[in-house]
Amino acid sequence: MNLHHPALRDALAAEYVLGTLHGAARRRFESLLPAHPALRKAVNGWEYRLNRLAAASPVAAPPPEVWRGLEQRLFPVAPSRSWWNNLALWRGLALASVLAAVVALAPPLVVPQSVGELPFAAIRDPNHDVLWTVAMAEDGQLHVNSLRVMNVPTDQHCLLWLKRGDSPPVMLGELPDQGNARTLVLPASTPRPTQGMLWVSMQPRSNGAPPAQPLYRARWQTL
Hints:
- This protein is an alpha+beta fold.
- The chain has three domains: about 5-55, no CATH class; about 65-110, no CATH class; about 120-220, Immunoglobulin-like.
- It has helices spanning about 5-20, 25-30, 35-55, 65-75, 85-105, and strands at about 120-125, 130-135, 140-145, 155-165, 170-175, 180-185, 195-205, 215-220, 220.
- Strands 6-3-2-1-9 form a five-stranded antiparallel β-sheet, covered by helices on one side. Strands 5-4-7-8 form a four-stranded antiparallel β-sheet, with no helix packed on it.
- The longest helix is centred in the middle third of the chain and has 19 residues, at about 85-105.
């Protein structure tokens, strides 16, 4: 595990924060955190980004099966008869803590899909720094967060496109570029954005033509 490689370090931190790093890999990652300041900084950065996503989406309660799944994963063994070792005594507190973290970090990712199918995309620059995050909401809208102020000329803007196969890209909307958030409401005729690649272009405001090549591109991840 070469943690001196920025792209690998950032990818591992993202998986750790999003909860997709499991088993021995997650335990190994946690054991390395105390001795690697750069790794802790990457984790803090991803926690900050996901907290920014929370502001762009209404709060949604987890479905009942998520509660049951958390309980089974956290408490797989039968409780002891001793009151001190009885997990029922601590179960409410533990579940409250876990679900408080879920609500704080991932409200925009709570959609009526099965767990493991949460559409999320991170648009990066050539230095692998994340410029925007895009999350698909329950109603089909896209919640976009700009993670830093972009140096965009006043007569131009950044546009988000959907590219599917050999078809021309379809515009999804204008991206925020001042470190803020925006919700893109898509027309009913727009193809489902997760069925393709995301393109970003920077072009004059008077030019709405699809780009031949993107400035940045990103693939969807299912978390």
